[in-house]
Amino acid sequence: MAGKCRGKLLVEEIFDPEQGWNYSQNQVPVQKNSAPDGNPCFIVDIDGIEMAVFQQNKWKDSVDSHINPMRIVTITTFRGINLRNAKALLNGNYDSSGLPNFGLNDSGEIVLQAAFPVGPDFPVELARKQLQVCMGLISEDATGLLQSWNANTQEAPKADWETARNVAKVAGVFAKALFF
Q1: pLDDT tens digits along 18-29
Q2: Which of 15, 114, 120, 150 is deepest in the core (most CB within 10 A)?
Q3: What confidence score (pLDDT) does residue 6 get?
Q4: Which of 15, 180, 7, 173 is nearest to 91 (CA)?
Q5: Distance CA 119, CA 9 (A)
Q6: Average pLDDT of 150-162?
Q7: What is the CB neighbour count within 10 angstroms for residue 147?
Q8: In the prediction, which pLDDT does 156 show?
């Protein structure tokens, strides 16, 4: 791809205080790790919701696509939740127009994720603002979902979408859109 060569990946620049990340560890805890592909992965905690943030630069070998894979991805995983109704999960994706969207990871766990495309000259400040929106949406939705799932069970939580719909009424405008 054409464009200037960055010294760091864009995702690294987003979290770099010298590039404008002005949140302390007390405000927004961030840990830098490595993803399986060797690229940096940042673990961010927003209001108790742990999210992984990374830059995707290429598709997995199993993916055949002519669409540019470059994007910043934010994802949270719901561990220990048993899915009762996959159709409701897909309806949630449709209702939210895919931002954020639900999926299943390689282990079959429910994930909630959001991503936005980037390129070689993508402005750091714009990427940071986009990421903050993605993290905010995921945090808000995940908090409401976990409250509804955990309040509705004595055993392992099950994804009860009717209860989740009721919680969404109080969780905010976006959460409402997700379930209706």
Answers
A1: 999 999 999 999
A2: 114
A3: 58
A4: 180
A5: 11
A6: 53
A7: 15
A8: 47
CATH numbers and ranges of domains, the chain: 10-179 (3.30.1460.10)
Q: Which residues contact 52 (CB under 8 A, 6 or more apart)?
A: 41, 42, 43, 44, 73, 74, 75, 76
Q: What phi-psi label fits residue 141: left (phi over 0), alpha (psi between -120 and 50 degrees) or beta?
A: alpha
DSSP H helical segments within the chain, as ranges?
Answer: 10-14, 86-95, 124-151, 161-171, 173-179
Report how far apart, in Å, the C-alpha atoms of 92 and of each of 57, 75, 95, 161 are: 27, 16, 5, 10
Which pLDDT score, from 0 to 100, does residue 153 have?
59
Contact 78, 103 (CB under 8 A): no
* pTM more than 0.85: no
What is the spatial distance between Cα 86 and Cα 79, in angstroms, rounded to a whole number? 16
| Distance separating alpha carbons of residues 72 and 10, to the nearest angstrom | 8
Rg (CA), the chain: 17
Spatial contact of 73 and 53, defined as CB atoms under 8 Å apart: yes
Compute how many other C-beta atoms are within 10 angstroms of the C-beta atom of residue 67.
9
Alpha helices, DSSP H, located in 6-123: 10-14, 86-95
